[in-house]
Amino acid sequence: MTPVKQKKDCILREVAGEYLLIPTGAAAVDLNGMITLSETAAFVWKLLEREQSFDSLLAAVLDTYEVERAVAERELRQTLVSLDRLGVLEH
Asked: pTM score, two decimals?
């Protein structure tokens, strides 16, 4: 997987214990509404302020959360695919 980072036209907010990705500017037209993220997905999103490789993201997740490597790899890959399909990542 090529290095990725977040597009700057979405902001992350925590509201009542939920993490919401809110599109702004042109993204608001493309993404009709807000995106709810899990705590781990929000953690990954914050890391994506700077370009990251899959391996660097995986290392950060493994350092922060108690999770088996295989589970972390699978869930991180799913998170990145979902964010990419939403069009909020740059390659």
From this structure: 0.90
> 22-36: string of b/e by CB count within 10 Å (b at 16+)?
bbeeebeeebeeebe
Q: Domain limits at 77?
A: 5-86
Residue 80: its H or E element:
helix 69-85
pLDDT digits (tens, 9 = 90+) for 41-78: 999 999 999 999 999 999 999 999 999 999 999 999 99
The answer to whether residue 72 is domain-embedded is yes
Distance CA 77, CA 54 (A): 8
- Provide the number of structural domains found in the chain: 1
Q: Is 50 helix (H, G, I), strand (E, B) or coil?
A: coil
